[in-house]
Amino acid sequence: MVLIKFTNCRILQGDKLVNEDFCICTNAGKIVDGQEAFYHSSSLHTDIIDAGGKIISPGLIDCQVNGAFGFNFSTIPDDMNAYVSSLGCIKSSKVLPFHKPTGLRIAKAGAESLGAHCEGPFLNPTKNGAHDIGVLAEAFSFADLEECYGREHFIAKSNTECLPIKMITVSPELGDMMSLIPELARRRIICSIGHSEATYEEARKAMDQGASMVTHLFNAMRPLHHRDPGIIGLLGNNALPHEHFFGLVADGIHLHPMVINLAIISQPDKCILVTDAMHLLGLPDGVYPWTNGGSTYNITKSGAKLLLADSDKIAGR
């Protein structure tokens, strides 16, 4: 076991940044009480890291974010082919080196992109949510995916190059998507199912084919029914063929707390918190334009709630 002591650092307590040293035990992966660390330090290998006054925080990853502070990742000015253009701008990060011998990853300050999550356009128009139905499509061959996202974004120039696409959300019941999932998995692109009318049987088949995630579970999919559980029924299956995860927008708006509890109790190690944040994150309340596909809508922002103007449809957190 290794005890890591961070000194000369700032950490968040409540809503304030405080200057305070602290220790982490790598065996438990948790912060250790300072008194306890003192008594056990003689029996553990101790690394001391001077943070140089920087903020120490968990390395959180949001695998579903659409934008923030007025910037929309899916809008390219004067360009209708948004996927090809935007993916060409992404420089996906390489895997960060491990800080040996502790096994902790020490990353530079700030945030960076690990690649793109393409939420569409191969989504079911009956479960479009805030997506413009006019831009949704079906895929019948891998060439359809290449035409949409850009063939060059599916080809790695070397074994060390990271593709800009890390995840694609699809409706497995549409077109011939079910047969395309294995090829996405082969290219190490995470296939997530969502915005879908898929039955439980179709959802299970998609997982068997190589899908490994559900996009914002409960939202934009057929509701749970005792004779027709749909995608949500995957919560009750602990024998899927490989690692699988469920995204949850646990903002108190998209899901009722008891629904969140249902997911966590069913699959405690498989739930991933996502923000599904939009470009209005960080902006003051008000009415803002939002270009989606070839159409422009207004979104009303009131605190953490975003509604499509003149409706009660949630546009995202």
Automatic annotation (TrEMBL):
GO BP annotation list: N-acetylglucosamine catabolic process
InterPro entries linked to this entry: Metal-dep_hydrolase_composite, Metal_Hydrolase
Domain of life of the source: Eukaryota
UniProt KW keywords: Hydrolase
Spans traversing the lipid bilayer: none
GO MF annotations, alphabetized: N-acetylglucosamine-6-phosphate deacetylase activity
PANTHER family named in the record: N-ACETYLGLUCOSAMINE-6-PHOSPHATE DEACETYLASE
Name this protein carries in UniProt: N-acetylglucosamine-6-phosphate deacetylase
